[in-house]
Amino acid sequence: MTELSLSVINRFGGTQPRARLDDAIIQEYAEAMIAGDVFPPVTTFHDGAAYWLADGFHRVNAALRAGRESIDATIHQGTQRDAILWSISANATHGLRRTNEDKRRAVTRLLSDPEWAAWSDREIARRAAVSNNFVSELRRSLSSDDSERERTYTTKHGTRATMNTASIGQATQTEHVGSQPATQRDDAP
Prior knowledge:
Strand order of the largest sheet: 1-5-3-4-2
Strand content: 15-25%
Shape: elongated
Number of helices: 7
Radius of gyration: 24 Å
Order of helices and strands: EEHEEHEHHHHHEE
Structural class: alpha/beta
Distance between the termini: 84 Å
């Protein structure tokens, strides 16, 4: 954990997963900080030039409101993209609970990225800390062309593979043109 200057933390790089910040919570946190309450460190990713905020948007805004110049931070080496991926599941188990709109925004963020959208619904659900059905329904509602879908998944042997899922869920037709099942052959006794 490091004391990090608030002025170097990038809060506006598209890493915020919430639909909106709650001003009442920011005010409550600011008052608690002024009263001396200690908060968990925020999470940032440092790419050598910028510190991308991944978790702790309410705390950073509260610290600014409280007149602080720095905040406790956990710093990971990584890019803006790493911060976005981390933020997707932020607050799933702590802090101000995510709204359904926050969850939808997180999953939509993954589905709108070409690399992340290729992941299976199950993997996206795991990363966003939501149900597999939630991801499937949202993917279906966002998809304009279901005919060319591919998903990347991890096999039971730990290797990465790609599956064409365009025909999953479609009825199959079996035609028996000019053939009969073996048990009903013409020359059978």
